[in-house]
Amino acid sequence: PAKQQNIENDYDEPIQNALEVLYKAAETKNEDPDSVVDALESLENLMRKKCLAEDDAAANVLANLEGEWRLIFTTGTQDSQKKLGGKKINYFPIKAVQEFDPTADPMQIRNGIYVGDFAVIKFFGDFEFNLKSRKLEFDFDKISVLGFSIDLGKGKAAEIGAASGLGAESNVELAKKKKKPFFNWISADENIATARGGGGGLALWKRVVVEEESSSME
């Protein structure tokens, strides 16, 4: 029972409260942006507590990541906020979809920007996930532009991402230091996923159901 669960810990109920705000934001894009940021920050702190207390919590986040996710909301990186005079980016205006396959070896990641159902640009690569910190480090080694595939050298994806505004400029610096760009993952369930990017920004994704968007990692 929910009441008994709340006695056992002090995080499950406030986690659910934060998630309810984020579920609505992902579905309607009408929730107040400040409320969404507050919910993301609250969820980040609460999930840290939950993952410290429960051995399987982080593993569940990784398992739930499998599938496709459309970026709904982002505060933008600290770099982008500075360029906009401190203004935070909120509901993401274009169709950006990320896909994770934690069952592959190595685990696979794909990032695509779409116009309608047409992929203008897609990045392909692999990722590692630290179950202790929920840090997801990734590296893209191939790019597809308007259907034409190009193999990438180390750090090239970060440069393209920063130049196009799709990635943080901090990723370029990480590549120069032979370090991978990363997300500090917060949560993932059947509806939404949340994370803090390496550039410091918070983000919210909505799961793409198969009927909405059918694609593969191939």
Task: Describe the protein's architecture and organization.
The protein is an alpha+beta fold. The protein has one domain (11-207): Lipocalin. The protein is 35% helix and 33% strand. The protein is built from 7 helices and 9 strands. It has helices spanning 2-8, 12-28, 33-53, 57-64, 78-83, 156-164, 169-176, and strands at 67-74, 95-101, 107-115, 118-130, 135-145, 148-151, 182-188, 192-197, 202-208. An 8-stranded antiparallel β-barrel has the order 1-2-3-4-5-7-8-9, surrounded by 4 helices. A hairpin with a 4-residue loop joins strand 4 (118-130) and strand 5 (135-145). Helix 2 runs antiparallel to helix 3 and helix 6 (156-164) packs antiparallel against helix 7 (169-176). The radius of gyration is 17 Å and the shape is globular. The model is unreliable at 1-7, 161-168 and 212-218 (pLDDT under 50).
Mean pLDDT: 82
List the domain count as a whole number: 1
CATH topology: Lipocalin
In DSSP terms (H or I, runs of 4 or more residues), the helix count works out at 7
Beta-strand residue fraction: 25-35%
How many extended strands? 9
Q: State the name of the first-level CATH class.
A: Mainly Beta
Instruction: Name the overall outline.
Output: globular
- Please state how the strands of the largest beta sheet are arranged side by side: 1-2-3-4-5-7-8-9
The separation of the N and C termini measures 43 Å
Q: Looking at the chains present, what oligomeric state does this protein adopt? A: single chain
Low-pLDDT windows of residues: 1-7, 161-168, 212-218
Largest sheet: 8 strands, antiparallel, barrel
Q: Which bin fits the share of residues in helices?
A: 25-40%
H-E order? HHHHEHEEEEEHHEEE
**Which architecture would the CATH scheme give at its second level?**
Beta Barrel
Radius of gyration (CA) equals: 17 Å
